[in-house]
Amino acid sequence: MIVRRFDPMVFLNNVGGGKTVTVYKPGQTIFRQHDVATDIFYLQTGRAKEIISSEQGKEAVVGMLEPGVFFGASGMYGGAERLSTVTALTTCTATAITQEAMKLALHRPQFAQLFMAYLLDHNSRIEAERINLLFNSSEKRLALKLIMLAHVADGEPEVIGPEITQEMLAEMIGTTRPRVNYFLNKFRKLGFIKYNGGIVVLPALLEAVLQGTPGIRDTEIK
């Protein structure tokens, strides 16, 4: 497909005055929920988290951002508010692209296909998260989240770094930190994960989820 051959960095290097490259330190906010959205962002390096806050002040981590993704799509619309807060987990290099530059870029078929693929993937992930929360136990939600964060389906799994804390995992799957700790210990004893500078997800975890083995429960333990 043309989308796969198109390198967004080629576009970014030719945007000229329509972009601003910024390096963010761990813990630094890239943008906040309810800020006026004036740019669309592209993450070049590092990892960031996306958080949504309720009117009551409760926060939930709704996504992890990794290199090669666009974020802050509300910046496509003049005067729109940011729908979430994005904070750097590691040192991040992000490019802010103005609305005008993005609109011009979307006239290029290759870039338009790339950006459309991003939007479709983003929406499908949101729907998958909703289904996951509705129909799976917290234990299975954690297993699926670990598989996703480690990119198990993409080949050699990546180590889930220490910046992804148990508290953060609990927020992602809608449970408590003690429950996450209990499940992680259980997964380790079952040979589903190990620790080596972070969480190493082993193939057995994916097999357990796909085959529905007794190691991963589909319903909550009351």
What descriptive keywords fit this protein?
222 residues; alpha+beta; Jelly Rolls; Arc Repressor Mutant, subunit A; 2 domains; 4-stranded antiparallel sheet; 8 helices; 10 strands; 38% helix; globular; disordered N terminus
Structure report:
This protein has two domains: 2-129, Sandwich (Jelly Rolls), CATH 2.60.120; 136-211, Winged helix-like DNA-binding domain superfamily/Winged helix DNA-binding domain (Arc Repressor Mutant, subunit A). 38% of the residues lie in helices and 22% in strands. The chain is built from eight helices and ten strands. The protein has helices at 2-5, 8-12, 99-105, 109-135, 138-149, 166-173, 177-189, 203-211; strands at residues 19-24, 29-31, 39-45, 48-53, 59-65, 70-71, 85-88, 92-98, 193-195, 199-201. Helix 5 crosses helix 6 and helix 6 crosses helix 7 (177-189). The longest helix has 27 residues, at 109-135. The N and C termini lie far apart (48 Å).
Which helices and strands occur, and which strands form pairs?
Layout lengths: L1 H4 L2 H5 L6 E6 L4 E3 L7 E7 L2 E6 L5 E7 L4 E2 L13 E4 L3 E7 H7 L3 H27 L2 H12 L16 H8 L3 H13 L3 E3 L3 E3 L1 H9 L11
Antiparallel strand pairs: 1-8, 2-7, 3-6, 3-8, 4-5, 4-7, 9-10
